[in-house]
Here is the input.
Amino acid sequence: MSVRSFATLFRPSQFFSIRGGVHPEGRKSLSSDCPIEDMPIPTLIRVPLQQHIGAEAEPVVKRDDVVLKGQLIGKARGPVSANIHAPTSGRVIAVGHFAAPHPSGLPIPTITIRTDGADSWGPRLGRLRPENASPEEIAAKVAEAGIVGMGGATFPSAVKLNLRGKYALHTLVINGAECEPYLTCDDRLMRERAEEIVDGIGIIARALGVTQIVVAIESNKPQAIAAMQRFDRALGIPLRVQVVPTQYPMGSEKHLVKILTGRETPARALTADLGVVVHNAGTAHAVHLAVRYGEPLISRVVTVSGRGVRRPANVRVLIGTPVAEVLAHCGGLTEDPERLLLGGPMMGQPIQNTRVPVVKGTSGILALTRAETPDLDTMPCIRCGRCAQACPVGLTPFEMNARIQADDLDGAGRIGLLDCITCGCCSFTCPSNIPLVQTIHFAKGKLAEQEGRKHQQEETRRLAAARKAREEAAAEAKRQAMAKRKAEMEAKKQREAAAAAATPQPAQHGEPLQ
Amino acid sequence: MIEAAVSMSALGLGLGLLLGVAARRFHVETPPVVDAIDAILPGTNCGACGYPGCHGLAEAMAEGSAPVTACTPGGRDVALQLATIVDTGSDGAVAGMAETEPTVAFIFEDHCTGCMKCFKRCPTDAIIGANRQIHSVVVDACIGCDACIEVCPTEAIVKRVKPKSIKNWYWDKPQPAFGSGNGGYAA
Ligand code: SF4
Ligand code: SF4
Here is the structure.
């Protein structure tokens, strides 16, 4: 870490905006003045075993088990995975499958709990005093609590805390940008729980061993900025609040780092390569709860908004609560929504079924009416180039779109398909309403599926080879056993013959025995 | 007795030697294209193509007696790869090959008697079960080759489209229907 790069860290002149990007209407006022409220405990809770990037958790309870709040019900499997805990007390009524909070609505392994309403805590995780805890202990605690990135990426946070050994880290960036329209959950959390968040930030910073902290908040959240500006240290580590322009996709990790440090993270590299680690403000709050109070990640703040919702709100929801119940808590729907989304309007995913559960990465539940959704009347591309201008990664979406439409996925890959962050700026800005990001979603999914199929083919080839080897080994063993038996038989016969030849007499002596 | 043993051993040794020498002497180089084809084929020797194992098909394909589309478990992807190294004869063969959905075997539990026949036959060990216990297919290991279907005495096994999971699901390709005919293109 040279002095120069430190100096460039906050050069105000760099402080403009990201390349491209768009300025969608914020519509945050729908819910930004609604304090975070708690929801009554629903009667049924469905906790998927995969709410994070990485391997699915392994269930450690079975049907009819009685579970207490905070009890481990799914155990992390492998290095990139996350623990799952019971959000409240009750009885496990199924360890099976249920529709995923995903556009496909396909079933995924899920634990269903009938709650008992008592909400009684089981034993909490052991508490830590972060002031004297080692970074490893903090990371282990965060892993134990099953904390994942709360901004929506749901990458297991403990893995990110353990980057310390591999990279020379110097800065922790706390992402409070919340650039998606409608969403206000991080905003509210920062306004109401600034002290706890700052404590969580300090804990994360200690685990990472960084020397400075930057909290990045978009300029459209003055109260959150004011709340966070009350602090200039987190557990003794200098902290500063940096106001960033209101622009989508400011909350994208690499773009945030670009704007704060002026340095661009190379394609397919990590921000850690630049010595910077980004965590979400909500994650910091979860870390605070886990380390100070031993509370695993069992609830999260969700923004329920859109004009299709009667009473927009910010609700602290237990993980596993059905979306329908959250909507009902907010007065239900005013009309049949045009789009029902989990997440923000730009990157959120539509769901078909409101019985799917809220998971660790659900930042918002949006019911958008016809008036709020863009016109879908598609026209041909007029080569205006606006999508390329808006693309924050510097791609040419219209060209990728053309190649994908012509089934040339490899061609699209050559012009950066895999670098696309699926932010949706291109579709948002296209005057012809061409479904650019939707086409890219298809292409990325298809490529991933092909990759998976190839991988599977290799695996089956390996299985077939293993079977052949086993069969050959078995045949060989059989042959050898036969040969051995034959040899033994022959040896025996030889012995008998030799014995008969050497001692012909004893046979006669033996006669009386008969 | 000893004579018998010695003579048998000598016979075995002699014949073995003869075989070894013959193998050396009459060794046939497999044409490199056969190996190349072999490398692309799934290598599971399932027999779905009707040839004795993947190598058999590779040879047939090299001499042009089998189409590149013969490997059904490999599907379109394998055919496309093969078409790059094998003369396909008619150009349309692969292009016309529909992108088939991968299929897997499915066992109707009601009909399964636990006879272990399919268990023994599966080239990728994708069937789990034990004697007199209902068998089941490990979907991720199954290549949809039909081998088990042929041997099942109670016809308890069928082939069906591989169930979609959240891991391999993806959006359909958007087919934008342009609002007003072909927009301004015609002019
Ligand atoms: S979705 Fe992809 S192509 Fe479109 S603007 Fe975002 S990064 Fe660029
Ligand atoms: S913004 Fe739309 S119309 Fe303009 S170049 Fe891109 S795809 Fe074409």
The first helix of chain B runs from residue 2 to 25.
